[in-house]
Every structure is written in C-alpha cells, then in structure tokens.
Design goal:
Layout (H helix, E strand, L loop, with lengths): L1 E6 L7 H5 L7 E5 L2 E10 L4 E9 L1 H8 L21 H10 L1 H5 L6 H4 L3 E11 L4 H8 L5 E8 L9 E13 L1 H16 L9 H14 L5 H8 L4 H12 L27 H16 L3 E5 L5 H6 L7 E6 L2 H11 L6 H6 E5 L14 E5 L7 H15 L3 E7 L24 H15 L1 E8 L10 E8 H10 L1
Parallel strand pairs: 8-9, 8-11, 9-10, 11-12
Antiparallel strand pairs: 1-4, 1-5, 2-3, 3-4, 5-7, 6-7, 12-14, 13-14
Amino acid sequence: MLLTISTTHRPATDLGYLLHKHPDRVQEFPQSFGTATVLYPEASEERCTAALVLEVDPVRLARRQGRKAPDFSLAQYVNDRSYAASSLLGVALADVFSTARSGTCKADQALADSAIPLEIRIPVLPCRGGAEIAHRVFGPLGWEVSAEPIVLDEAFPEWGDSRYVRLTLTGELRLADALSQLHVLLPVLDESKHYWQGPDEVDKLLRSGGEWLAGHPDRTLITRRYLGRRGGLTRVALARLAELDEAAEESLEPAAEEEVLQPEERRVPLNTQRHRAVLQVLAELEARTVIDLGCGPGQLLERLLKEPGLTKVAGCDVSARSLQYAARRLHVDRMSERQAERLELFQGALTYEDPRFAGYDAAVLMEVVEHVDPPRLEALERVVFGAARPGAVVVTTPNREYNALYEGLTGMRHPDHRFEWDRAEFAAWCERVATTHGYVVERRGVGEPDETHGTPTQLAIFTRNEDRKEARADA
C-alpha cells in the first residue's frame, strides 16, 4: 500500500518537522500485520513529498485475527490487502504519524496550527460506491477531489471499472486535520475493517473526527460505514454527534441501507431542541444584541442571523479553526455590507477579561461550561458575569443523570467534557453565581423529560437584578 503527502509550502522541507520524520532518513515501523516505512522521494525548498509504504504479511494478519474474525476463510490469505489502501493503512498512518495528528510541533508550532498547501495521493483505493462517494466524503472538508476509476482489466474494457479508484486530494488544510480525516475515511471508503469493532470504536471516531464530522453533510453515511453498520454503535455515535452540531437532516435511527429514505416524521435532535429553546428565551428577553460565547463552528450564529429583531450578533471562540468553519458556514465572504455590519467574529478565551465581551443585551453559553477545567470555571464566571456583565446570560449544559438512558454510553457524553453536572449540582452552581454577581436565575429543561432522570439538557436564564428593578419601575 502506498500513500504520499506533498507540499509546496516554502520551505517545503518543513514537512519533515510537521511529520516528525527526517527527510534524509528511511524509517521502518513494525506493525502487528506487517511493516510501515516512511521515506521522502523528493525534498527540496520548492516541493517535498513524504511516502508511507505499508507491506502486509497476510499470514501474520490471518493468525492475528483468529477464528472470531468475520471472514475466517481463504479470503484472509487471498485478498487485496497487499496493495490496496484500507483500514490497515489507516491504522499504520495513525501509529506512524501520531504526533503529527495531535497537531503539536515543538520546532514550529505556528506552522502546525496553519493551513498549508497539501497534495495527497493514493494510487489504489477501494471505494465502495465509486468515485461519487469519494467526492461526497472529502469534498465538504475543503479538498479538491480527483477520483479516477481503475478499469477492471485494460485488455477487456467492456468489463467496466473495478471498485478501486486512483485518489488525489489537493487543498490548503492543517496537516493534523488532513491526517485525522484520512484515518477515519480510509476504512469508510473501503468499508471493510480488518479488526473486531467494540464499543470503544465510538470514542475513537469522535476523537479523530468529532470536530469536522459533526458538521459534515454525510455524517450518517460516514458513521455507519466506519462502525461496520452496527446499529447500536451507530445510534450512540450519532446521538453524541448531535450534541456537537445540528442533525436536522438525519435520524438517530439510521436506515439499514444508504438508499432507504428516512421517514417523514422524525425525532427532533437534541441540538435542534436546544437551539429552539435558546431562541425562545432570547425572544422572551426582547434582546436586540447577542453574543455567542464559545460559538464553535457557528450553528447557533446561523440561526441568530435569521432573526430580524437582532441588530447585532457576535461570536467568540478560542479555536481559530472553529471560527474559520463559522465564517464558511455563514458565507461571510459573500455577505452584503449591511449584513456584515450585524456580525462580528473574533477569537478570545472566556477565562480572560476582554472588553469585546461587554455591551450586549444577552450572552449565550451553550454547551460550553462543561468543557472548562473545574479550577478555571471561577475565572469564566468572573469574566462573563462580573466583567462583561450582559443584561442576561443563557446557559445550557448536559444533565448527567440522563446519561443512564443513552444505550452504550459509558462515562461522559463527549471526550472533551471536563465534568457533567446532575440537576442538584447545576442548581447549586446557578444560585452561587447569581448571588455572587447580582443576577437572578430561572432554570428549565430541554428535551424529552424522564420521570426519574429529568431532561437531557439543563438550561438556566440569568438576568441582572437592576434590569428587573428597572422593568418593574417602567411598568
């Protein structure tokens, strides 16, 4: 199997720093199913290419799988694993380039955080569904995709194309993002993993793809294929992805086959219910200016901009990549001057005071506080409620008690959550913050309630005491 990564970033040999593999060396990495080799066919200031070559030992692979493997047959020994990119290459890539996938580079962290021109080539890639599937899964991620079908037999063109394509991806992305996408999507296109899939596969998928997969238009297809069409795992994964992004176009009960249409009456995803609840609260507050603190890739901002009563909408996030996704989602580059005047996007950390946070009728912290380390939560409280001090603050966060109703969920709902509160803990936090900073608080629930466990999402509305007094005086 062969995969090459090229760049024309100047100097192009910086690719060696990003991959943590020296261009002047040939390095071998033993795998349980063969040997992975990294080398550089070209390395100049203008262009640099790193090649990952995987040599598979079919006998070792077959013995490693054992009789519990789903294809315990001669097919384990006579197959395309020796030359066609597959889940084996994805596993080797994750192992060999593990530091690069994490996005860290001590030699030049600024470069690791930047999008650079990349060209990725895979000469033989199994692609069930043909070239169209390759375009569907890679295109929305910012790649220019070339998926050239490989004929079954050049001597007999009438036999048509094989299930393999010659894939070339070109675009400007962070190298870490590109590697994480390949790690997930290679087995998705092949749709035949070489190892047994257990419940921890959901966590692996979210770690590698949670950020970009949540907003992908074909996330159901990707999730189902990655998890081997195992319905229970797929439902858990889609439910957790719905926590990260809107899933209005998808059902948490995926169809058995991709061609089967979803039923017209579908369960409303929890994230959509949260958005509706927040919009309803903002309407009740008669807010005219709103800031979304921790806006992520801009799902709520997109809805806020559709509200004609809002004269100013701002979004802030600590992640520059999330803000880039938000700008793309909102089509900032195509906005009219009048539309652009209503919107402000900026980078900032909620644990440090920033004058740009201040001056809004309402601030929204939707599924944000649980991502903050508990020792730093007090700093966020001081910055938002004490310094910025908006007229109202709307907070949503998971209800830990409800997790017992999610089939297959162990631990917290997302790998990046630092904590999750039950209803009593959330109530205590709300009362303490309100008392400390001069707010009054009202708590509600979002989502279908359970008699024992409550609602899946908790919502709190903080309003300043002085605003309440002024409202009563006006009345």
